Predict the 3D structure of the following.
Amino acid sequence: MILITKYLKNFYIVLIILTILISIFFIPNFKFQISLLWPAPGYYTINSYYGKRIAPTEGASTFHKGIDISAPEGSSFIAVTSGTITYVGFLGGGGYTITLTDENTSIGEIKYSYCHCDPNFIVSEGDYVCKGQIIGYVGPKYVYNEKGNPYSDENGIPTNGATTGPHLHFGIRINDQYVDPLNFLSKQE
Ligand SMILES: [Zn+2]
């Protein structure tokens, strides 16, 4: 009887150790379980992926900190998750940009940026937006009313940041570190 009890005790200890080891193995993968909507409904072609690249136009980065989704001017994009709009304006190479922030996730603060937007913004800084809500539109290639905009095409016409044509640039920062958005997105509505 004592022998059986001892065996059981060892069995439970082994079970506990196994559980801990399995948990340690799977915890890093929890970050991939944030559930996001695809930012540009109906548009799933990616023109430029996250990572190293040859700059497509002067001023564009050689390390692409997001993905470029092919979408025509005027197509709507949505909040991939619920959160607060923390930036609306012209932001260097990103042109007209909207930033959506989700402050209180289990892995920290996550910022979602939408670049080369239409300057006729429909959200303002401080707005709380719900997952799936339309928050803006893909902007034009050319913009004319932004003072100090250093970006232009080969003919000197000012552009909507460093861009070669209308598209949605979408980026994700987790605690201020850029990550590949495709680790978190799936091409589904
Ligand atoms: Zn881009």
